[in-house]
Amino acid sequence: MGRADAVERYDVFEPVKICPSILSADLARLGSDVEMVAQAGAGYVHIDVMDGHFVPNLTMGVPVVKSLKRSCSLPLDVHLMIDNPLEELPWFIDAGADMVSVHAEVLDEGGLVRAVEMMRAGGVATAMALKPATPVSVLAPVIGALDMVLVMSVEPGFSGQSYIEGSEAKVAEVVRMARAAGASPLIQVDGGIGDATAPLVCAQGADLLVCGNAVYAQDDPAAALERIQQVADQARREALAA
Ligand code: DX5
Ligand code: ZN
After folding, report:
1. On the chain, which terminus has fewer CB atoms closer than 10 Å, C or N?
2. Which ligand has the nearest atom to the CA of 215?
3. pLDDT tens digit sequence for 135-158
């Protein structure tokens, strides 16, 4: 994507993509829980991989990605919250991930570049994730090579936490940094996103929203997803028209 296209991307309406996190699903009926959100218009399935080291929690890994790849029609968005992404990235690419986010906090500059090279070689979208306290500037060495930046709006580790107020400012910062570099990564926001917080981040340029509890912990997950989609798209339209 050239510089002109990059600038334009932030000025054209595209529907927001909702990425339900299966961490909040009923894992005893994962297939039907994923099918339900696919029917409701979800864009990706978000798979939270936690190793018990980078974050205190321990969740799911390669076998879940492999099974979903066989059974699910949505693309798979794998969020690696692990200490050693350069070792395990190939496993998740081979398992069928369509996009893998690795955390910038565990990589030095060479590691960031290497991770992007591995993602490109593996044919997956290139993505880096930032914890709430991590400055956007750490992505400077790779910003031009990223398909997506994941902005965390809670401390990684658990679903069902409250959105950290002001996280939308970081979305705006990513947009500014990307524009200045002539780059145009998509921006995903993860943590405490529901119908009250989706408009805040979408008004600043968020393209993809991870929703755990705001979808799966609701009585009617499909209706909850549709409502978030609606308020998110409306905020984007209003921001573009302003
Ligand atoms: C947190 C995970 C999130 C989480 C989102 O570490 O990365 O994806 O499952 O859950 P909610 O939307 O409930 O905050
Ligand atoms: Zn996540």
Report:
1. C
2. 1
3. 999 999 999 999 999 999 999 999
